[in-house]
Structure formats: structure tokens, C-alpha cells
From TrEMBL:
Residues 125-272 form the Rod shape-determining protein MreC beta-barrel core domain. InterPro entries: Cell/Rod_1 (IPR042177), Cell/Rod_MreC_2 (IPR042175), MreC (IPR007221), MreC_beta-barrel_core (IPR055342). It comes from Psychrobacter luti. Keywords: Cell shape. Belongs to the MreC family. Involved in formation and maintenance of cell shape. One of its GO terms (cellular component) is plasma membrane. GO terms for biological process: regulation of cell shape. This is Cell shape-determining protein MreC.
């Protein structure tokens, strides 16, 4: 009866039942005599090893990708931190360079030859005039420091201009680059006299009233001549940069590069007559 019922079942079902029955029989024998199946068990485990390793590959890939992402993120953060430190270091270096440059400029100013006739009063440029068309700067020294209208101001390289207004603690300096300013000069090489005028810009001056027959050359140095008593003699004013002869008149068109620094000059020297200072000091004492 049972074999006939079993025979009527589908082939796949019959195979499954046979495998289960054989498996149960083998399990029963294994429980009774485990040593019989040790060689089979060892061989089976060895054969399954590659399958086990393949099954772990997704987990390994996940851990590797996670670690790689974390490593990249850590490197990115470290890179950003290093960039920030570099920017801060560069900013500090810029400040140190500025301080060193200012120190060098101060040493240059203070080492300027002190003429016997003048005291050199160190002043700082603290502002510019509100009229942008004028070449005027404001100094931090005034009447209380002995600054007077008409005094000449220089830097370590040459003439800057003259004091035009004085207040108790400040003063206004008209630069020789102003269009309304002029300086009597001498060509140092030949001794020829001429007039230098400003052009309203801090990088150029003009040498006027020089005849075409005059012996002037590019590179000639111009120094103050002292004529008129406005600016003392012997201070550098500029150097001839370009000469052009025009057909309109008998004079040459001559451009001059200023000797002094009119762009970023932070410290200047006010020339104060020693005799005047001594006389004022005697008056104040009396």
C-alpha cells in the first residue's frame, strides 16, 4: 500500500524524500560512530573553505570602503588644517616683513647726515589732505614740537616738501609733486641751474626752462640749489628720466623721477634751524 502511494508521487518529491531518508540514516550512524565520518567531514570543510571566503567578500568590501572613506575624510580635514596654519603663518610673515621694512626705513632716516645748521625732527605721516587734487599730507608733529611754516621736510632719499600749516600737535606738508610747488635745483654734473615743478602725481616731476643747447643727460642727478631761501641747498630732488626736444620752442621737455618716496613714506624728517630753535628756547626760558 505505502510503496504504491510513494510510487504515485512526482519524481522530484520522491528524490527529495530519498535524500532526506539517507541523510537521517547517515546522521544516526554519525551519532553512534562519529569516527567513521571524520575523513568525510574534513574533506567537506576543506571543500567549503573557498565558499566561506567568497561569502565574506561583501563584508570585507564594506569595511574597506568605510575605512577608505574615513581615511579620505581624515586626510581632507588634515589638509584643511594645514592650509589654515599655512595662511596664518604667511600672514604673520607679512607682518614681520612690514615691521622689518619699517625698521630698516627708520634706521636709514636716522642715519641721514645731520647738517650742522639743522636739527632733524622725526615725524610720522598720519593722513592725507581732504582735497584729492592737492599733494598734501598730515604729520603728527606741530607747534609744540617746534614745527613752523616754511620748514623743509625730507626723507632718507631726498626732498619731500615744505610745511604750509601748523597746529598745536599736527602740521600739513605740501609735497614738491604738487602742481603749485617748485624747487630751485642744480644739475650736479654740470652745475647748471633750473627749476623743478610738480605734476600732481607722486611718481614724476618736470624740469623747466632748460634750453635745447644745454648739457643735460638722462641719469643726471638734481639737487636743491638753495636759491630763494625756501629749501636748503644740497638735498637730492630727483634724477632726469626722459628728455624730448620739441619744435615749438627753444626749451626741452624733461621728465624727472623724484628722489624721495612719495607713495608709502611713513616717517619723515623736519629740518629745524638750530639758531631759531636756540633763540626760541632762550625766549621761553626768559
Amino acid at each position: 500500500m505505502i510503496p504504491s502511494i510513494f510510487a504515485r508521487q512526482p519524481l522530484a518529491l520522491r528524490k527529495t524524500a530519498i535524500v532526506l531518508i539517507v541523510a537521517l540514516i547517515l546522521m544516526w550512524f554519525d551519532s553512534k560512530n562519529p569516527e567513521w565520518f571524520n575523513p568525510i567531514r574534513t574533506t567537506t570543510h576543506a571543500a567549503m573553505q573557498p565558499i566561506y571566503e567568497l561569502s565574506l567578500l561583501p563584508s570585507y568590501a564594506k569595511h574597506w570602503s568605510s575605512g577608505s572613506l574615513q581615511s579620505k575624510e581624515a586626510l581632507r580635514r588634515e589638509n584643511m588644517q594645514l592650509k589654515s596654519q599655512l595662511i596664518h603663518a604667511q600672514a604673520k610673515l607679512q607682518q614681520q616683513d612690514y615691521i622689518l621694512a619699517q625698521n630698516a626705513r627708520l634706521q636709514g632716516i636716522l642715519s641721514t647726515t645731520r647738517p650742522e645748521q639743522f636739527d632733524l625732527n622725526l615725524a610720522q605721516v598720519i593722513g592725507t589732505d581732504t582735497n584729492l587734487l592737492r599733494q598734501i599730507v598730515v604729520l603728527n608733529k606741530g607747534e609744540q614740537d617746534g614745527v613752523q611754516v616754511g620748514q623743509t621736510v625730507i626723507d632718507e632719499d631726498g626732498v619731500l616738501g615744505q610745511i604750509i600749516n601748523v597746529y598745536p600737535n599736527t602740521s600739513r606738508l605740501l609735497l614738491i609733486t604738487d602742481e603749485q610747488q617748485s624747487v630751485a635745483v642744480t644739475v650736479k654734473r654740470t652745475g647748471q641751474r633750473a627749476i623743478v615743478t610738480g605734476e600732481g602725481i607722486p611718481t614724476s616731476l618736470r624740469l623747466n626752462y632748460v634750453f635745447k643747447t644745454s648739457d643735460v643727460r638722462v641719469g643726471d642727478e638734481l639737487v636743491s640749489s638753495g636759491l630763494g631761501g625756501r629749501i636748503p641747498a644740497g638735498y637730492r630732488v630727483g634724477r632726469i628720466a626722459h628728455i624730448e626736444d620739441t619744435q615749438a620752442d627753444n626749451f626741452r621737455s624733461i621728465e624727472v623721477t623724484p628722489a624721495a618716496n612719495f607713495i608709502d613714506n611713513a616717517y619723515v624728517l623736519v629740518l629745524q634751524d638750530k639758531l631759531v630753535n636756540k633763540r626760541n628756547a632762550d625766549i621761553s626760558e626768559n
